[in-house]
Amino acid sequence: QVQLVESGGELVQAGGSLRLSCVASTLTFRVYNVAWFRQAPGKEREFVGWITRNPGNPLIADSVAGRFTISRDNAKNTVYLQMNNLNPEDTAVYYCAATQIEFLSTNSADWHYWGQGTQVTVSS
């Protein structure tokens, strides 16, 4: 069982930046693929991006490409989501998720472990 805890969400003005963190409880964090999803009120959960286990290759959704990046620090059991040039449409609860399955999916149902989420609110 892997426990994930997100942090870093807050209220920010449009054009601003935030860095979200996802800390995992497992000592074998390096073997997990990790993804970020987000869910806005009244909308379905949306894939934001993932980063694979070693060598840590990232994939970012087209909707946020060029503004968001994902990185990981296995020594700290942490995955980061750097978000730049935020706009009000980025307002959502952001979740990290993890899986050991090798074939990765942008479907949230295919990810096994989830954090509780962190709220990001972007004001115009």
What does this entry show, briefly?
It is built from no helices and 11 strands. It has 124 residues and is mainly β.
Question: What does this protein look like?
Answer:
By secondary structure, this protein is mostly beta strands. Helices cover about 0% and strands about 45% of the residues. It is built from no helices and eleven strands. Strands 2, 4, 5, 6, 9, 10 and 11 form a seven-stranded mixed sheet that branches. The chain is globular, with a radius of gyration of 13 Å.
List the helices and strands and how they pair.
Layout: E1 4-7, E2 11-13, E3 18-24, E4 33-39, E5 46-51, E6 58-60, E7 68-73, E8 78-83, E9 92-99, E10 113-114, E11 118-123
Rg over CA atoms: 13 Å
**String of helices and strands:** EEEEEEEEEEE
Number of helices: 0
Structural class by sheet pairing and helices: mainly beta
Feature tags:
seven-stranded mixed β-sheet; 0% helix; four-stranded antiparallel β-sheet; 124 residues; mainly beta
